């Protein structure tokens, strides 16, 4: 009886796909967080801050290239 219960538990794959998708989603989330932490300042410089936002950043980049 115990062996039958163990065999049934080992052979049961119900929910395995959902768990795998959850693990994949968690891995992607961790990679995104690590990327944003690593490149945070670069992203802020790229996108700009303040009222002008990306427009000011683009103007600054254009001015830097032209000089």
Task: Sum up the structure in keywords.
67 residues, transmembrane helix, transmembrane, Flp family type IVb pilin, Flp_Fap
Describe the structure.
The protein is an all-alpha fold and 67 residues long. The chain has one domain (1-66). The chain has four helices and no strands. The protein has helices at 2-11, 16-38, 40-47, 54-66. The protein is rod-shaped and about 80 Å long. It starts with a helix and ends with a helix. The model has no long low-confidence stretch (mean pLDDT 83).
Give a quick summary of the entry:
This protein has four helices and no strands. The chain is mainly alpha-helical and 67 residues long.
Major sheet attributes: none
The overall number of domains is 1
The structural class is mainly alpha
Shape designation: rod-shaped
Number of helical segments? 4
What is the helix fraction of residues, given as a range? over 70%
Unreliable runs, pLDDT <50, ≥5 residues?
Answer: none
For the secondary structure, the number of strands is: 0
Sketch the topology as an H/E string, one letter per element: HHHH
Cα end-to-end separation? 82 Å
Q: What percentage of amino acids are in beta strands?
A: under 5%
Mean pLDDT: 83
Radius of gyration over all CA atoms, rounded: 25 Å
Transmembrane segments: 21-39
Keywords: Membrane, Transmembrane, Transmembrane helix
InterPro entries: Flp_Fap (IPR007047)
Protein name: Flp family type IVb pilin
